[in-house]
Design a protein that fits this description.
Blueprint: H1 2-16, E1 39-43, E2 57-68, E3 73-78, E4 89-93, E5 96-103, E6 125-128, E7 133-143, E8 162-165
Antiparallel strand pairs: 1-2, 2-7, 3-6, 3-8, 4-5, 5-7
């Protein structure tokens, strides 16, 4: 019986033809993704307090908060504002202007002279992202003496653009 099974197997193998021989070759396929840094900026309003004409300056304070992915260098700038005139930022009301300046914690004036160049007297502040919020104080001084004698009472305003370059 064994002989018969062996003969049958050999016969079937001969009828089926040769078994295929497989070889192989391979290559690596690189896979990548570019993850862009996540950046956000938030700014509190800078409000100068009310005043009467007897004072020389009125202080104000705002905070810029920057959040950027860890390890990404960045710079924060503040432009000249909507009422830039005679090399000064100004708040405006009823066509009258009052000068003000913005200072960093270091005492340097905030600006964008090293980037957009709209406010030539001030520079950016820089840092490196940590993935957590990083805050920058903006100390303002309104120069009351710059307000014209005939300027009416009321609200004087300006709008600034805070930009984060990274």
């Amino acid at each position: 019986m064994r002989c018969r099974a062996l003969v049958f197997f050999l016969f079937m193998s001969a009828c089926a033809g040769p078994l295929p021989v497989w070889t192989e070759t391979s290559a690596s396929m690189p896979v990548s993704v570019l993850v862009l840094p996540v950046a956000s900026v938030n700014v509190t309003p800078l409000v100068f307090g009310p005043f009467t004409r007897g004072v020389t300056t009125v202080p104000g304070m705002a905070v810029i908060t920057v959040t950027l992915s860890s390890g990404i260098p960045y710079f924060v700038t503040i432009n000249a504002g909507m009422h830039f005139a005679d090399s000064w930022r100004n708040v405006e009301g009823s066509g009258f202007l009052a000068r003000y300046a913005l200072f960093q914690a270091s005492g340097a004036e905030w600006g964008d002279a090293d980037f957009a160049g709209s406010y030539p007297r001030g520079r950016s502040a820089g840092g490196i992202g940590t993935g957590a919020s990083q805050s920058y104080n903006v100390r303002g001084e309104l120069y009351v003496s710059s307000l014209a004698a005939g300027a009416p009472a009321g609200t004087y305003q300006d709008v600034l653009l805070v930009t984060v370059y990274y």
